[in-house]
Amino acid sequence: MAERAWNGANVTGSEAESMQRIVPGKGFHERASRQKDGVQNRISHNAWWMFVGRVLNFFFQAAYFILLARLLGVHDYGVFAGAYALVNTFTPYSALGAAMLLLRYVSIDPKVAGTYWGNALATTSGFTVVAAMSAILWPWRMHFIGSSLMFVSLILANCFFSQITLLGSSLVFALGNARLSALMNVASNLGRLLILVIMKVAMGHATAAQWSVGLLIASCVAATVVYVNIRIQLGAATFDWRLLKRRFGEGLGFSFAGTTEAVNNDLDKIMLASYGMEAQNGYYTLAYRMIDFATSPIVALNAAVVQRHFVLSPGGVRPVRKLALKSLFASVALGFPIALIIRLASPLLPMIAGGGFVGAIAVVNILCWLPLIRGVHQACGSAVTGLGYQNWRTATQAVAALLNLALNLIWIDRKSVV
Prior knowledge:
mainly alpha, two-stranded antiparallel sheet, 2 strands
């Protein structure tokens, strides 16, 4: 057997190879440095495309909600907001957390993309059928806010078509195509804006139910484009019942987390609408949408980082914590100026959305600090999720949702006004 000199000692070739694998030399550090640079470049690349997508969506959504406010008026805007919020509370269960499952497992092993995609389509379709039939057979359960037509349209739009777009975007992002993921999200919002422009020009004014049908059409078109694109890239989706059962608990946890988040964001809108306070709900919803727009840069940063948390998690807590601290610092650095800009710009809101929304100014001035708070929450929560402790994150969100419910029950009175 051949021998080699290793630091002055004679060792066999196999021993030298083993020692080369064990002892970190110059090549090891170079590879580690290149790997680190590659991770940072991927994060920067993904964050850039997510930011571009968010910026485009920001303008599309800004135009969307401004035109929607002018199309519906204060009263119907409040009715639509309440119905949309109610559907949004159970929408996370339609895909059983498939978007996060795609990010977590497809990011690590792209070979399973077709199976996870097929399982997501199956669960989304099944849930939508059940939810839509429930709205048709037992409409009285939802009539305290709107009509059956409006709820069936919103269920089909949110629980099925919008979920297809979200799942497709998450899938291609997990496969490393951040640009296509951003374009898919942009196409969805662009479709809604185009339908809204058509209705505004053709009708001038529309009811909440009429706009729900328009939203359904726009969501259907966007989802069809996304599905065809995924089919071309991946081929036919496959279904694996055993994998679905194995991931059911984890997906349910993600869905429950989405519900707690929806309750925190939308419970007050549902209660305002159910109390017949449509105008006040219109003020509050428009103000809340303004906050959502302004939070786009922080959300884009978190969307780019969460995938890297999943990839880094096998290495333990240290790399995830390091990335989380960086994203936390960036979120805080963005949150403060965003809050100040919102506060200064709030008097312009009625000029843009219409004079009937003057009551939204006071709400905006109170909510202007939400982007900063959300940034801290998302930076920390994403790290917890990436490390596999989603249950802990869900538990804290559930506690916050219960507190939110209690405060709403205390502060929102049937005879109160904004």
